């Protein structure tokens, strides 16, 4: 692995929310609640991260000048709130989500907010990542199917400067492996780790 840990301080939780972030999060949460109530079949792998903390972490990354460029990708986007928070601050932001019903909902919320983020339907797993099959055996909550989603987006994994993912406990290694294998040097991978908060690594 060629990943360098970047310590995100606890004080990140004291950063003011970005202008418009609270409205975006409230709108998304209302849509998520309505979707959950209306939907008969539970999407087991879909749980939401702490959107407020994610907004603060994105501001911190900007303030620290850690970004090598302007492209953001949310891996396993759900309702695409991460991608929308990134787009709101001027990033060129996309999400990748494998569950079509979530993709539809995410893009409807983005449209209703006039937010430029777009969520693509497909797998975040690019084809032919070496050594991924062994790690995939230990992963239960990520669909490990390979796909051509990046072709549809028109960008490669190494075109993005910041990835965000909310892995299930113990499954962050799967995302780190893809990131390490395919992202460009200097790119960042931010993951939400529940009670442990935000984790950040850079490919070096
Ligand atoms: C824990 S949820 C996180 C949702 C969102 N990122 C958030 O933080 O609120 C993980 C999402 O990843 C999606 N997912 C699982 N495997 C995937 C894959 N191979 N490609 C794209 N999305 C995937 C699931 O359907 C689920 O919506």
TrEMBL record:
Q: Which organism is it from?
A: Aporhodopirellula rubra
Q: InterPro entries under this entry?
A: SAM-dependent_MTases_sf
What is the protein's given name? Methyltransferase
